[in-house]
Write a structure and sequence with these properties.
Layout lengths: L9 H12 L10 H11 L3 H17 L15 H9 E3 L6 E3 L14 H4 L12 H32 L2
Antiparallel strand pairs: 1-2
Helix pairs in contact: 1-3
Length: 162
């Protein structure tokens, strides 16, 4: 690779200008692994970090060399993967909600997890044995209410007939 006036290769010059563009004070003693950790720690804004690596990747593609420093543009951390496994995106409002959610807390839409492809199964109320018991209890409660309404009505009619 050609050397420039400052006794750096074109690639080193490009990196030097890229560091300055992203307000990182370059140091020529940095190794490739040091550059990566310094860039990753300095550029806390994800968009800036991705832009930095995209510019570097574009340079590497346009100017292939054995010296070029390559870096994966973005690699998910274990924490991000764990969060991704706990949440799903609501198909109605595109907000993140827990995978076990039956209803979106943002827009109020009810999920049909079968159509969304989630393995979380929802037990339908009508399919359980408890559903029959609940129907019997509701029937008895209504029966009790009707009984007392009739008692009051007949008592009023009996008193008013005197």
């Amino acid at each position: 690779m050609k050397k420039t006036d400052s006794n750096r290769t074109e690639y080193q010059e490009f990196l030097y200008s890229l560091f300055q563009k992203y307000e990182i004070e370059p140091n020529e003693s940095w190794s490739n692994s040091e550059w990566k950790s310094i860039v990753d720690s300095h550029l806390t804004n994800k968009k800036k970090l991705v832009n930095f690596y995209n510019e570097l990747a574009d340079y590497n593609i346009k100017n292939p060399s054995d010296q070029n420093w390559t870096h994966k543009i973005y690699e998910k951390s274990e924490e991000e993967e764990e969060v991704e496994n706990l949440f799903k995106t609501c198909p109605f409002c595109a907000e993140e909600v827990k995978k076990a959610a039956l209803k979106c807390r943002h827009c109020g839409e009810i999920f049909d997890n079968d159509k969304m492809g989630y393995d979380h199964k929802i037990e339908k109320v009508g399919d359980s044995a408890g559903s029959f018991l609940w129907k019997v209890i509701k029937f008895l409660i209504w029966l009790f209410i009707i009984y007392w309404i009739l008692q009051i009505l007949f008592a009023w009619l009996w008193v008013s007939s005197w």
